[in-house]
């Protein structure tokens, strides 16, 4: 109802603000990982090289920040929260379905049951795309060395999967939701219509100028 909507509109920005502040505070520490060191080249000109600071080579920093905190913030906490949210949605849908007596409502709810499935797919995709980066940090935390080439491949592959995770959700929603497809197609048609109108007006203006 209106009261619930008003309450949601009040605490939602606060939660978002807390998340933004927490993320900024967590990542700002990494600015102390490297420092620019002035070096003199044999040809007598100055170079600046990025070198790890004492903080970056600190065993406590690597174990606590790069290991445990990264694992908690990037994998375990998001997974737990998304899992709880998914079970909550499934529970509410089942509860609503049990109370419903109209056939039309039951049909609509069957369509809505795809949402938890999509959310589960997003969770699995998130874990699959972040497990490599998590392993890299765990290996670093436990001082497991696979070799320079293997370490570089794991890091690059982990970064690639993070990029995939950022873009693959679009295809998950596209393949699972008819409404999402319709909305995206509508936006695309609007863009093409506006683009054609702009091109047409530009062409007419050019003809009139000539």
UniProtKB/TrEMBL annotation:
Lineage top rank: taxon: Eukaryota
GO cellular component entries: membrane
Protein's name in the database: G-protein coupled receptors family 1 profile domain-containing protein
Positions of the G-protein coupled receptors family 1 profile domain: 51-173
Pfam families assigned to the protein according to its UniProt record, in alphabetical order: 7TM_GPCR_Srw (PF10324)
PANTHER family documented for this protein: FMRFAMIDE PEPTIDE RECEPTOR FAMILY-RELATED (PTHR47632), G-PROTEIN COUPLED RECEPTORS FAMILY 1 PROFILE DOMAIN-CONTAINING PROTEIN (PTHR47632:SF5)
Record keywords: Membrane, Signal, Transmembrane, Transmembrane helix
Organism of this sequence: Teladorsagia circumcincta (Brown stomach worm)
InterPro entries membership: 7TM_GPCR_serpentine_rcpt_Srw, GPCR1-like, GPCR_Rhodpsn_7TM
The keyword Iron appears for this protein: no
First and last residue of the signal peptide: 1-25
PROSITE patterns in the record: G_PROTEIN_RECEP_F1_2 (PS50262)
Residue runs in coiled coils: none
Subcellular location per the Swiss-Prot or TrEMBL entry: Membrane
Molecular function (Gene Ontology), one example: G protein-coupled peptide receptor activity
Residue ranges crossing the lipid bilayer per the database entry: 68-93, 114-137, 157-175
Entry annotated with the keyword Membrane: yes
């Amino acid at each position: 109802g209106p009261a619930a909507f008003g309450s949601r509109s009040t605490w939602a920005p606060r939660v978002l603000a807390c998340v933004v502040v927490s993320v900024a505070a967590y990542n700002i520490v990494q600015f102390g990982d490297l420092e620019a060191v002035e070096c003199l080249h044999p040809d007598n000109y100055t170079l600046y090289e990025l070198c790890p600071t004492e903080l970056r080579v600190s065993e406590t920093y690597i174990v606590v920040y790069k290991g445990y905190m990264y694992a908690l913030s990037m994998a375990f906490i998001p997974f737990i929260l998304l899992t709880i949210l998914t079970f909550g949605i499934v529970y509410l849908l089942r509860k609503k379905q049990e109370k419903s007596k109209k056939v039309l409502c039951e049909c609509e709810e069957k369509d809505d049951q795809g949402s938890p499935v999509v959310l589960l797919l997003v969770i699995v995709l998130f874990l699959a795309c972040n497990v490599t980066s998590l392993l890299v940090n765990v290996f670093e935390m436990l001082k497991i060395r696979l070799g320079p080439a293997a370490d570089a491949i794991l890091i690059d592959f982990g970064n690639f999967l993070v990029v995939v995770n950022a873009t693959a959700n679009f295809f998950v929603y596209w393949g699972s939701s008819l409404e999402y497809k319709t909305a995206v197609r509508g936006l695309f048609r609007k863009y093409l219509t506006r683009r054609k109108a702009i091109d047409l007006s530009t062409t007419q203006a050019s003809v009139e100028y000539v």
